[in-house]
Amino acid sequence: MFSRLWSLFSTHEATPPPAGMHTIPCSVIDVLAPAVDFILTTGLVIDRPLNARKLEETLSILIEHKFPRAGARLARRNGVYEFQIPKSFDIKTPPMVFTVDEYAEPYNSTARPEIPTLTPRFAVGEPAVVPVPELDAFFRSNACPSSLEAFLQPNMPLLHVHVARFDDRTFIGVTSSHAAFDALGTRALLTAWTRLLSGDDIAAIPGMNWNVQPFDHESFKFAAASRTPLKRGSFDLGLFRRLSFIVQFVLRIIRDSKEDGYLVRVPKAFLDDSKRKIMEGLKSRSSNEWVGSSDVLMAWWFKATYGHRRSDDTTPIHIHIPVNLRDKPIFSGDSLLTTPYIHNMILSITVPPIPAYAFRTESLGELALRFRRAILAYNTDLAGIRTDVQWHYANPDKILFPCPPGAEFSFQSNWRKAQFAQLDFSGACVLGQDDTAPARVVFVQPKVTCSKMPPMRGNGSVIMEDENAIWMGQYRGRKDWEDIRRRGAIAFIE
Prior knowledge:
Layout (H helix, E strand, L loop, with lengths): L1 H8 L11 E5 L13 E8 L5 H14 L7 E5 L2 E7 L10 E6 L25 E4 L4 H4 L8 H4 L8 E6 L4 E8 L5 H15 L20 H7 L14 H17 L3 E9 H17 L8 H14 L9 E9 L21 E10 L2 H4 L2 H17 L1 H13 L13 E7 L26 E9 L10 E6 L3 E9 H10 L3 E2 L2
Parallel strand pairs: 5-7, 6-16, 10-12, 12-14
Antiparallel strand pairs: 1-4, 2-8, 2-13, 3-4, 6-9, 7-8, 9-15, 10-11, 14-15
Helix pairs in contact: 2-5, 6-12, 9-11
Pfam families: Transferase
Keywords: Transferase
InterPro entries: CAT-like_dom_sf, Sec_Metabolite_Acyltrans
């Protein structure tokens, strides 16, 4: 009894850092909820058989000499998440977990899932919804962690790479905690990897030092001790409004309890033609405004999926577009990052709320301009971007909401800048193969898991583009998908 009382009032010595490890606290951006709970797999399908041993050896060398943070462990010590980076790697402290499955047959030799980008029946001229192929077994081993808790186990490498090799193609799955990698961070590591595979001198390949901390400078430290405005596009709800938001969200799930994910294929020719018509309309009005293909894509998607809403439906739709901070001069000395950075560098642009009826009544061009204006306003407001980051440092545990009660929200990521389909793994081709043909990434499939997966409906992302189309992954309720199918707004190809 006395020992329990004493423990309440005594001061415990802080847990020291583990021996043989450098330690770097996770930035507040790394551990923003709910991303900190997510485990992200980036799955790549390459149209050639690759040498798994060469893949493992080169990636191990790259991590050890250029990206030691990719070989880190994630830990929670003294109440703070941190990266623990081994000072040296060996058999007991490997830079990653690398697993391989070999299949002595062509992938297409049996009734395996179709690769959508390689299937002629999916190559239609109009936008189409197609099933997501069941490829998880080729991107993750059975032992691959699927939750934050699993990655917090002692000496658990943050990076897990699984290779499934067939006689005609190779699957590579790159899995890590989302606290350690975002899409562009994964791209930075994979770009360096393919360069090393191709024979580039490792000294000439840009890397990321173990002690890089781009958010650890005076402007953010100062803000953490001062009051900053609420982050734009987010809502700090009081108890009653928070309960109202949760109840309304749960009721929407109850009304459409099954959630399905689909791929959405949008031909580039369709987008280019739509953009051309919009630009011609702007020119005819002597307007200096313009739209990009991504603006047109988002406008088309929301018009196709929300265009059935009643003409008097004023429900505000809050659309959030995750944005890369790497190319923003907000860091020390108002500068850009000068080295690759694998960890999270993502906040979000919020498009001013759009009433639901607008997706029915406004033209594609008017909706596309809403997206373009929001993006331009965000990118030119560097002080506002810096303040958004500062707010998170000043309020690390604050729970924000993406919209107020009575509104709806959608997060729409865009991986086009990651350009995964442009990666070339030719340097790892199996000997004896045709050396003149590049080893192309022909399909990209992300996968997110966590111990308590939140509803994903209404959210999605652009996952890749090939020569002919942009591919999105979108989640919606099953009844909602059926409603979209019945309206005929988009073709469904099963």
